[in-house]
Design goal:
The chain has helices at about 20-35, 60-80, 110-115, 180-190, 200-210, 225-235, 270-275; strands at about 50-55, 60, 85, 100-110, 120-130, 130-140, 145-150, 155, 160, 175, 190-195, 215, 220, 240, 255, 260-265. By secondary structure, it is α+β, with helices and mostly antiparallel strands. It is globular and about 50 Å long.
């Protein structure tokens, strides 16, 4: 295996594919993918798309596959040297040899999409040496496009994002799996429990835009669920970490993560302390 950063066919072209140079085209690709999905979406009702299950319980629709095919062709065309990791594509270990990797979930929140709930999104990240350097998240049913690049802030529909200004976790607005909210509340006291956001990527983005104070994440989230939102969070002034405080590393052989928390950076130490108790 070639170590990250040493791919023999990559570095000479890297300057042509900076996050800034790719951002506009990636945002357009996300919007186009969302437009492809919308005809299948039925607000409040069952999707018009054909639906089946991977394994016992993971739904997939023909829209997921159509978007995945479009995005893989389009994004790898923009940056052929980058590897590929997607929920709907068979994993190719060749990605591990690449410094840059596209990490994509064509529809994050397929259950929501299939049942007519508006909280689903197209999630696209470009990762370099294990860290996201471009994050784009598009929620078609809300027509909200989130994007971020390192050092350039996080934005939604042209407005700069800012995390909640809350100075304490008392009565914090919290969403996520009930067992994790129970754990936080046992240590912190009463919190405001918001409805669980079915798209994990959108759950995290709403911490970035200040509408949620704390976003909790069950174990076994995958790279494609969180990579784009991770950068959006960071650029908005928040942190996404494991409960041990470690930041996620992407494009590993097993792209799974343990329980995590997303919260404003200034509240992160207190939130981590509470979740460890």
């Amino acid at each position: 295996m070639v170590s990250p950063g040493k791919h023999p066919h990559f570095r000479s072209d890297a300057v042509l594919h900076t996050p800034s140079s790719l951002a506009s085209a990636v945002c357009e690709a996300a919007r186009r993918a969302g437009a492809m999905a919308l005809p299948y979406f039925r607000s409040g009702g069952q999707t018009a798309a054909r639906l089946w299950y991977k394994g016992q319980s993971s739904p997939v629709t023909e829209a997921d596959i159509a978007l995945d095919t479009f995005l893989k062709g389009h994004l790898t065309g923009l940056f052929p040297e980058a590897g590929w990791l997607s929920e709907e594509t068979a994993d190719d270990p060749a990605r591990l040899e690449r410094s840059h990797v596209w990490i994509v979930d064509p529809i994050d929140g397929t259950r929501a999409f299939a049942s007519g709930h508006p909280d689903w999104a197209v999630s696209i990240a470009l990762v370099r040496d294990g860290k996201p350097v471009l994050g784009v998240l598009y929620a078609p049913a809300h027509d909200r496009l989130y994007e971020a690049r390192p050092g350039e802030g996080a934005w939604c529909n042209g407005e700069r994002l800012q995390v909640s200004e809350a100075e304490a976790l008392d009565l914090a607005r919290v969403t996520g799996p009930k067992p994790l909210m129970d754990r936080l509340e046992r240590r912190m006291g009463a919190v405001e429990r918001l409805p669980k956001v079915p798209s994990l990527a959108l759950r995290l983005a709403r911490v970035a835009d200040g509408s949620i104070d704390v976003g909790l994440v069950s174990a076994n989230a995958q790279d494609w669920d969180i990579a784009a939102a991770d950068l959006i969070l960071r650029e908005a002034g928040a942190r996404l970490t494991g409960l041990d405080g470690a930041v996620p590393v992407y494009n590993r052989p097993q792209p799974r993560h343990d329980e995590m928390i997303a919260v404003a950076s200034r509240l992160h130490p207190r939130a981590i302390e509470a979740m460890r108790a």
